[in-house]
Structure formats: structure tokens, C-alpha cells
Amino acid sequence: MSPLKIKKGSTSHSAYDLRPSYSDTVERHTLAVLVENEPGVLARVIGLFAGRGYNIESLTVAEVDHQGHRSRITIVTTGTPQIIIQIKAQLGRIIDVHKVNDLTVEGPSVERELGLFKVAGKGDQRVEALRLADIFRANVVDSTLESFVFEITGTPEKIDAFADLMRPLGLQEVARTGVAALSRGAV
User: Fold this and answer.
1) Contacts of 62 (CB under 8 A, 6+ apart)
2) Would you place residue 127 in the very low, low, confident or very high pLDDT band (cuts 50, 70, 90)?
3) Which of the residues 12, 82, 158, 167 has the least number of beta carbons within 10 Å of its own beta carbon?
4) pLDDT tens column, 80-95
5) Is the domain of 74 the same as that of 121?
6) 73 in the same domain as 115
7) CATH number at residue 160
8) Which residue range is the domain that position 74 belongs to?
9) How many H helices and E strands in the chain?
């Protein structure tokens, strides 16, 4: 019987090669982490990311159950599929973590972010800023003779688009809350 020859550069696809194949593609994932509302819990969660060199693109935290003393941490992060699996597993091992949900893979979800934008301008720039705010359904929450503060809620992409349009009109300052997210449909 002759030995099996494989061309240089090709890969073997054998039934005996049971290793999972992972992509090197970097993906964006939204994780919802239910934790004890205790001192130091957020620091441990953030420390996990910092200690392993994982990036956090967005982070929001708030108490969601006063009687049960639980908070929800919503984290938007990026990584290869293998890195995302590691992040979820390591989060699940933290004692004060009750549940880790990857909203990106669990089905459709709703993501929203709040942004505050201070825009300074006079004349036509001021009129244009108000017109664009109306198109984006942004609210004026403060107004002076020289500036506006707009409040806008939407997807991170909508917030980015609004910022891009306000820059040439005198955008001075931006504050963003980070992503809050929930899965769609019944639990």
C-alpha cells in the first residue's frame, strides 16, 4: 500500500482530526453579565479583561434587582471566536457572577446608547445643527446664544453618524453612556 501524499500547503481533513476549527476573524460581541451588587465585583470583572489584554469597547453597569442585590454589566468586546469563548468561560468562573449571556449569538437583541453633544456655532451652522438634530430625533436639552446640548438615543452606529455630522458644525464635547442591550422576544 502506498503512503498518502499531501501537497505542500494543503491541509488534511481527516475524521481523526477532531480539533474544532476557529476563525481568525475578529468579531464584536455584546455580553450581559448578571453579578452580585457588592464592592469589588466590577473591579474583578474589569481586571479579567485588563489582565489578559482583552479590549472593552463599551461598558455599562446598573443595579437591576434591589431585593436580590444584583447588577447587570453590559460589555461590548471584540476578539476571535476562540477569545470570546475564553472570555465567557473566565467570566463564568468569577464567584460573584451568576450568569453570562452572549447576546450576539443567542438571537436577535436590541442595543441602545445615549449620547450628549455640545455644539457651538452661530448663524447658518446653528440652523444646520438644529435641522440635523431634528432628522436624527435628537432633543435640545440645553441652549445658550452660542451653543446647544443635544441628547440622542439609538444604536452606536446612529450615535457615530450624528457625531460625524456635528463635527464640522462646531462639535465641542461628547459624552456617551455605552451600550445597554436586551434580547428580543420571550425569555
Assistant:
1) 71, 72
2) very high
3) 12
4) 999 999 999 999 999 9
5) no
6) no
7) 3.30.70.1150
8) 27-102
9) 4, 9
